[in-house]
Design a protein that fits this description.
Layout lengths: L1 H14 L13 E6 L4 H20 L4 E6 H5 L7 E3 L6 H5 L14 E5 L1 E2 L10 H4 L4 E2 L2 H11 L5 E5 L9 H9 L6 E5 L8 H9 L6 E3 L7 H6 L6 H14 L4 E8 L6 H14 L3 E6 L17 H18 L1
Parallel strand pairs: 1-2, 2-3, 4-7, 7-8, 9-10, 10-11
Antiparallel strand pairs: 5-6
Helix pairs in contact: 7-8, 8-10, 11-12
The chain binds iron/sulfur cluster.
Length: 324
């Protein structure tokens, strides 16, 4: 999603005659398009912003903008503009450029937002607090944007924190995948609680929909899934995997897993490892649990020491490496 926003802002500014520079010293404006879902990302952005502020002391005319979810989370002193994810595009007009309807760029990949925000409140996640409640993008806008890019882009991604929250997502998929054009349609991300057989049937019926499914498991242990407020069980998740493999024998399944979530004992972690081995994912993005203040998980008892979270993540990465 951030890549999509950054590309749109860049395009608007370039159309108005501005150019991208890779050297901060040469820049008139530095825009930080931020994500603070993980603590490490937040710390990294803050250190880059600090460097930009040092530069501004030597070059006061430099403008610094911070857009995206970090801006929704906290006030950042010493920058010129702060805009959250909902109004990130306003930075274009704040910089004196009028937003214009521009023709599509000929690129390999196009991204189309279909939902914004999320209200699932997984207990570890700050997205509902920084990106707001679920909003559904009007069908007419999605459809028009799709028609603009479908003859130019080879890969088109439908984006949302939980694309399955789009009302009748299978119908939307079928509608778009049925249009003319030499494209492959992808979607990101899915929530296992909402991912259903109707969606799988549509994928099977339309060769233009990618056989790559990202279905974040997060934990392979029911006790931890409950603490995470994920609203599905391991058994339910396994049924979705079986359904995918039944209809799509060539499916490529990837996932996300958090290691060392509060309350996760060694035995719980062993359960997750067994689930991962059983499912045989094609790839997994494995992270040690990251505390985010303001979330329920941050206050849960049984916080796992950081070195242990990292050790479990390393162990799981090794298992995935061996299996692949
Ligand atoms: S569904 Fe995704 S974005 Fe929404 S709260 Fe859960 S982890 Fe965060």
């Amino acid at each position: 999603m951030n890549i999509n926003t950054a590309a749109k802002i860049t395009k608007q500014l370039q159309a108005a005659g501005h150019c991208l520079v890779t050297d901060d010293e040469a820049a008139d404006v530095i825009i930080f398009n931020t994500c603070c879902v993980r603590n490490t990302a937040e710390q990294k952005i803050l250190s880059h912003i600090a460097l930009a502020k040092q530069l501004k002391r030597r070059k006061p005319e430099l403008l610094i903008a911070v857009i995206g979810c970090l801006s929704a989370k906290r006030k950042i002193n010493g920058v010129d503009f702060q805009l959250g994810t909902e109004n990130a595009m306003d930075i274009v007009e704040k910089l004196g450029v009028t937003l214009r309807l521009l023709p599509p760029t000929t690129t390999e990949t196009a991204y189309i937002d279909i939902t914004y925000g999320c209200e699932n409140y997984c207990s570890y996640c700050i997205v509902p607090f920084v990106r707001g409640k679920l909003r559904i993008r009007p069908y007419a806008e999605i459809s028009a944007e799709f028609d603009q890019v479908k003859d130019h882009a080879k890969h088109i991604y439908l984006l949302g924190q939980n694309v399955n929250a789009y009302p009748n997502f299978p119908q939307l998929l079928a509608d778009l995948a049925g249009r003319d054009g030499d494209f492959t349609l992808h979607f990101l991300s899915s929530h296992p609680k909402d991912f259903n057989e109707a969606t799988v049937k549509v994928i099977a019926a339309f060769p233009k929909i990618a056989r790559d499914i990202h279905l974040p498991l997060q934990s392979g242990c029911d006790k931890i899934l409950r603490l995470m407020n994920r609203k599905y069980t391991v058994a339910e998740y396994l049924e979705k995997i079986a359904c995918l493999r039944r209809y799509l024998p060539d499916v490529h399944i990837t996932t996300d897993i958090i290691c060392g979530f509060p309350g996760e004992t060694e035995k719980d972690f062993q359960t997750t490892m067994a689930t991962v081995k059983q499912i045989k994912f094609d790839a997994a993005y494995i992270f040690p649990y990251s505390n985010r203040s303001g979330t329920v998980a941050d206050k849960l008892a049984g916080q796992v020491p950081l070195h242990e979270r990292k050790a479990r993540a390393t162990k799981l990465v090794e298992i995935m490496r061996k299996m692949s």
